[in-house]
Amino acid sequence: MLKFFTIIALTGLFSCGNDVKNRPTKKIEANIERIHTDLDKLINVGADLEIIAEGFTWVEGPLWVEEAAMLLFSDIPPNKVFKWTEQGGLALYLEPSGYTSNRARGGEVGSNGLLLDRRGNLVLCQHGDRRIARMDALLSHPEAKYTTLAAKWKGKKLNSPNDIVERSNGDLFFTDPPYGLNDQHIEQQELDFCGVYKLDTMGRLSLLIDSIHRPNGIAFSPNENRLYVGNSDNQKPMLYAFDITPDDSLKSAGIVFDFSKFGGGPDGFKVDKNGNIFASGPGGIWIFNSSYELIGKIHIKQRVSNCCLADNDKTLYITASNQVLRLRMR
Q: SMP-30/Gluconolactonase/LRE-like region domain: which residues (predicted)?
């Protein structure tokens, strides 16, 4: 096991109040742990980690929009989506993002996972409204106008959709834990389980799994014949693999990784074109090769919630508590 440390210059640092303001450049110590030589194919020795934006409450759901060269991400408690570009820096993109009622309520009400569907629409996991919704506006001219895609299962409200992924045929797969409910109160749940669902292109909702206590991150393998689901339950903090059968039911393919000994579980994660998995977990980003071997870690002091890949898998964006980070890879 090899470790190296590098001093990082942090550029493009922003905060977000009513006005976006540049902040002085900072330096922090980054720690990338090399466990397997496969990591050398992904991340250069001495790679820079940058803070591109900070000053948030709890950021999640990073989404890279290639055509616009912009990063979108949710700040969940204040009910906002922000955008960041290399040229323009940070700006408010969408508000409200996850809760559209005027009634005051507690809990994490904003959007969580974000998705750009195959038609170029922004799809949001809306905690407060407890639904999967599509923004009814152009990406270039965002408005807080939404169409509900899924909100109930057999007449009962969903818990609080968390993360979402699209299959190449347009089907949406998403997780539904209770994290967006007010203090996760069980009495607010109309369903007595937390599910993993498929929403097909005809708008039909199917329950795929109801046995995972806290389903969270979700992603496909590159060939889409396997679905990965993270369980952020402290009792069984696992990253699971499921084979997708011809009728789209799921068959267990085992455990990618058991986080039980590491003081936390997996949150959001992404899979690159070669099947490598970049998973947020205790202490930072955990990187696995396509054989599910742990090949390295990006140690981050802040609690990490999610990540996304950009630039043909050469850049990794990371949401970490009140900060958004960028790692340029090979």
A: 59-321
Rounded Cα–Cα distance for residues 22 and 20 (Å): 7
Burial class of residue 101 in the structure, from the number of CB atoms within 10 Å of its CB (0-12 exposed, 13-18 middle, 19+ buried): exposed
Distance CA 307, CA 298 (A): 12
Q: Is 204 exposed, middle or buried (0-12, 13-18, 19+ CB in 10 A)?
A: exposed
Q: What's the pLDDT at 200?
A: 98
How far are the Cα atoms of 162, 304, 321 from residue 60, in angstroms, in the given order? 10, 9, 8
Which is it for strands 284-288 and 277-281: parallel, antiparallel or unpaired? antiparallel
Residue 271 contacts by C-beta under 8 Å, 6 or more apart in sequence?
219, 220, 221, 222, 228, 277, 278
Q: DSSP states of 183-196 as a string?
A: GG-GGG-SSSS-EE
Name the helix (H) or strand (E) containing 6.
strand 2-10
Q: 58-315 in CATH: which number?
A: 2.120.10.30
The two three-digit tokens of residue 231, written as one number = 């369980």
CA-CA distance, 64 to 309, in Å (whole number)? 7
Neighbours of 128 (CB within 10 A): 24
- For residue 327, count CB atoms less than 10 angstroms from its CB and return exposed for 0-12, middle for 13-18, buried for 19 or more: buried
- Preceding amide of 96 cis, omega within 30: yes
Residues 320 and 212: their CA atoms lie apart, in Å, by 25
pLDDT for 32 equals 94
Give yes or no for a contact between 62 and 71, defined as CB atoms under 8 angstroms apart.
yes
Q: Which residues of the chain have pLDDT under 50?
A: 1-25
